[in-house]
Design goal:
Blueprint: E1 5-8, H1 12-17, E2 24-29, E3 40-43, E4 47-50, H2 68-85, E5 86-96, H3 101-110, E6 114-122, E7 139-146, H4 159-164, E8 182-184, H5 205-215, E9 221-224, H6 231-239, E10 242-246, H7 250-271
Parallel strand pairs: 1-10, 2-5, 2-9, 6-8, 9-10
Antiparallel strand pairs: 3-4, 5-7, 6-7
Helix pairs in contact: 2-3, 5-6, 6-7
């Protein structure tokens, strides 16, 4: 069966409301982190916290400028919709950093989304800390959650793949051994991944490929609420899933569209060889 993708130029909150309940097998979320350097984070009306520096001191785009209150409300809102549209057998993987991981964790608990694992993505080649006033930020967090709760754990997990998975670039994972919650994946993007341009917070495709190896469903449906330049959607097509994604910025829509067309042509062509 030929695969398909649906990349929608629409605000994620508006877009999610138009999706059917219990219709997706897997969701990979890479939301705005609220890490812009020129933004003072308001917490209610009592005080302010300046955004931290380091490698997160890179973005000043409108989509990444949210106050703490806005970030919490936003996170709760899209997580609530994701809980509705994900199947009971499905699961949600959420990227975060120290800027927003607390919001994500608390919102999951408030919504009854059980945390299966917290993954530490170790970035061996992280951008160096230039201030000399803190440790070099060298990891991001990925929360793996499901909506069934502890009494209804029906989520799909390919345990055999978790043992057999091997990557020459991961110095921690041994073939044939259980996969652990620290993933050693260098933050490098190939020329092919950057062929049509890039997104400021673009992840290497190897991160999504590992998630799909563990929880992907062939010919199932993958949802990517914040599509960016399309990396997670491309990984989904390559794996063999139909993909749906939302992106509000037209520049990134253009990049993602080209990447998805390339991936779809390669995938569908291989089906008939």
């Amino acid at each position: 069966m030929a695969l398909r993708y649906n990349l929608i130029n629409k605000d994620v909150f508006e877009g999610l409301k138009g999706l059917h309940s219990d219709s997706f097998d897997l969701c990979i979320v890479d939301p705005p982190y609220g890490a812009s350097s020129k933004h003072n984070w308001d917490y209610g009306k009592k005080g302010k916290l300046k955004g931290f520096g380091g490698e997160w001191n890179l973005e000043n785009e409108a989509w990444d400028l949210l106050s703490q209150n806005e970030s919490f409300i936003s996170t709760y809102s899209w997580l609530k919709e994701l809980k509705r549209v994900i199947k009971i057998e499905g699961s949600i993987w959420i990227h975060s950093t120290y800027h927003n991981s607390g919001f994500v964790n608390v919102c999951c608990q408030l919504l009854g989304l059980e945390i299966i694992n917290e993954i530490a993505w170790y970035k061996r080649n992280s951008f160096p800390n230039l201030s000399g006033r803190r440790l070099t930020a060298s990891h991001e967090t990925i929360l793996w959650v499901h909506k069934g709760g502890e009494k209804n754990r029906k989520y799909y997990f390919n345990y055999e793949a978790s043992k057999s998975f091997h990557s020459s670039s991961d110095l921690l994972k041994e073939a044939g051994k259980q996969m652990r919650t620290v993933w050693d994946i260098p933050n490098n993007k190939s020329k092919d991944e950057m062929k049509y341009g890039s997104h400021p917070t673009q992840k290497p495709i190897k991160v999504s490929e590992r998630i799909l190896a563990l929880c992907g469903v062939k010919e199932g449906n993958l949802l990517v609420p914040f599509a960016g330049s399309g990396t997670e959607m491309v990984a989904g097509l390559n794996f063999g899933m139909n993909v749906t994604g939302f992106e509000i910025e037209s520049d990134y829509i253009s990049i993602a569209q080209k990447r998805l067309e390339d991936a779809l042509q390669k995938k569908n062509h291989s089906l008939f060889l």
